[in-house]
Amino acid sequence: MIENDIERIFFSEEEIRERVKALGAEITRDYMDKKPMMVGVLKGSFVFMADLVRAVNTYCDIDFMAVSSYGNGTSTTGAVSIRKDLSHDIAGRHVIIIEDILDSGVTLSYLKGYLMNRQPASISICTLLDKPSRRKSDIKADYVGFLCPDAFIVGYGLDYAEDYRNLPYIGVLKPEIYE
Ligand code: IMP
Ligand code: MG
């Protein structure tokens, strides 16, 4: 059972549900009549995205990108590559990038610059988790679910070597799992 690998729960299912609802309400208010293009960054954001869009009560488009900046370890390699691009044109559109976690910021600052070149009307960033203490790039999220301690966390879409994405809450692994 994957739950046995978790040392401590940081954010419970209940806390996440409440916070995601509040974020959805904020986005609904800010993007009413703008028909935002919600762009999920795969794979980490897929669980958050699925819950978030159901808390957004305005017309919106949904698209995904896949980027890779990590190997199977727990810290960034610094290099970002696009593995799957958008299937919609974003020129003149209001884009909201949906991320699981903003860590060094390398991934999101690259992605924001990449999408900015296509002349969208605006781009904002919505991240479930923010680890501001780890920031290397000058980037801020417009919508943040939770501030997160400087620990490697898993669950609710976040993985360690592709495991634990399906855990319904967010927690830290027991140290022996990394050995
Ligand atoms: P950044 O470019 O360093 O901001 O990294 C962002 C990406 O790294 C996220 O989208 C995650 O996929 C991954 N990541 C960063 N921190 C964690 C963590 O604590 N657990 C799992 N994945 C993480
Ligand atoms: Mg990842």
Could you name the key traits of this structure?
alpha/beta; six-stranded mixed sheet; three-stranded antiparallel sheet; 3 helices; binds inosinic acid; binds magnesium ion
Give a quick precis of the structure:
The protein is an alpha/beta fold. It has helices spanning 13-31, 46-53, 106-116, and strands at residues 6-11, 37-42, 61-68, 81-84, 94-102, 122-130, 143-147, 153-154, 170-173.
Bound molecules: inosinic acid, magnesium ion
Q: Which structural class best describes the helix and strand composition?
A: alpha/beta
The 3D shape can be described as globular
Largest sheet: 6 strands, mixed
Main-sheet strand order equals: 4-3-2-5-6-7
What is the CA-based Rg, rounded?
Answer: 16 Å
Helix amount, in percent? Answer: 10-25%
**Beta-sheet strand percentage?**
25-35%
Find the count of extended strands (DSSP E, 2+ residues): 9
What's the mean pLDDT score?
Answer: 94
- Write down the secondary-structure element order: EHEHEEEHEEEE
**Which blocks of ≥5 consecutive residues have pLDDT under 50?**
none
Q: What oligomeric state best describes the polypeptide chains here?
A: single chain
- End-to-end CA span: 18 Å
The number of helical segments is 3
